[in-house]
Write a structure and sequence with these properties.
Epox_hydrolase-like; Rossmann fold; nine-stranded mixed sheet
């Protein structure tokens, strides 16, 4: 059991799946009969990234299902780069919703890499969700073209090239008790993440195989594999929330083009003082905008 806020309790569960699918560790909060919201974290995060949103959503009458994506936390960590393409990653999540008897989630919410997974989930399993909410993330099929055509984004994405290398990124990131990740969490958000939260994140990243698996998402998207280049069309309404002080992504790429997300809203819910970690920086504002979107007919 994990408590979010003062009064919302979430159950930790593990769904055991046969290969090539991977076991899914997740938390479930709220009434099992309430409309479900599937919430997907990014790199190098886990289900707890939604600690600011879970209580608000549950109080608003929704059920939250927040997994650790494959490779993260206590979820399975299959070997090989191909295991981190859109098909295996999203098929885990479809199995999770089936297991939880959710025919169609009210929405899938994704941040960072979770946004890419959310877009892929909508394309591959369109009947299993009604809406999509994206927080500082992009549709993977258009990201590469944007990087190559936008010098500012190219410079911001320097680390992606480094992550393509074998072994060295894992070594560098894990040095001195993951000092680099600790620094990121100290200086990236608008306010430094609490030490206890950083310790929890680092502990999850230090699980054997976790950092290698997390980096394999980047390798799966890289030029040697290009597994994320053909993510299909998103057929459901899309809301985009954006922390304007994102140092990794240009806001110009926030709204996906009509050929990949024809029902995307044409305006961004902007959070001017928030960074890439918008759900940490502005938890109440993000929750309020998300709940309004979920309740729209």
């Amino acid at each position: 059991m994990e408590t979010f806020g003062d009064d919302v309790h979430a159950q930790h569960r593990i769904l055991r799946l046969d290969p090539p699918r991977a076991d899914v560790h997740y938390v479930s909060a709220g009434d099992d009969t309430a409309p479900a919201v599937l919430m997907l974290h990014g790199f190098p995060d886990n289900h707890a990234t939604w600690r600011g949103q879970i209580p608000a959503l549950v109080r608003a009458g929704f059920r939250v299902i927040a997994p650790d994506l494959r490779g993260y936390g206590r979820s399975g960590k299959p070997a090989g780069v191909d295991a981190y393409g859109p098909a295996p990653v999203t098929d885990d999540l479809a199995a999770l919703l089936d297991h939880e008897r959710v025919d169609s989630a009210r929405a899938v919410v994704g941040h960072d890499w979770g946004a890419a997974v959310a877009y892929a989930f909508a394309a591959r399993h369109p009947t299993k969700l009604q809406k999509l909410s994206i927080l500082n993330g992009v549709h993977p099929a258009v990201f590469l073209d944007f990087v190559l055509s936008n010098p500012t984004q190219f410079l911001k994405s320097y680390y992606i090239g480094f992550f393509q290398l074998p072994a060295l990124p894992e070594f560098v990131l894990s040095l001195a008790d993951f000092a680099m990740l600790r620094l990121v969490f100290a200086i990236d958000p608008a306010k430094p993440l609490a030490r206890s939260d950083v310790d929890t994140l680092v502990e999850a990243c230090s699980t054997p195989g976790a950092m290698h698996a997390a980096l394999n998402y980047y390798r799966a998207a890289g030029p040697a594999h290009s597994l994320w280049s053909d993510v299909g069309k998103c057929p459901v309404p899309v809301q985009v929330q954006w922390g304007a002080r994102d140092r990794y992504l240009e806001e110009k790429i926030a709204i996906p083009p009509a050929d990949v997300a024809p029902l995307a809203k044409k305006s961004v819910v902007s959070h001017p003082d928030a960074t890439h970690w918008v759900q940490w920086d502005e938890p109440d504002a993000v929750s309020d905008a998300l709940i309004e979107f979920l309740n729209e007919k």
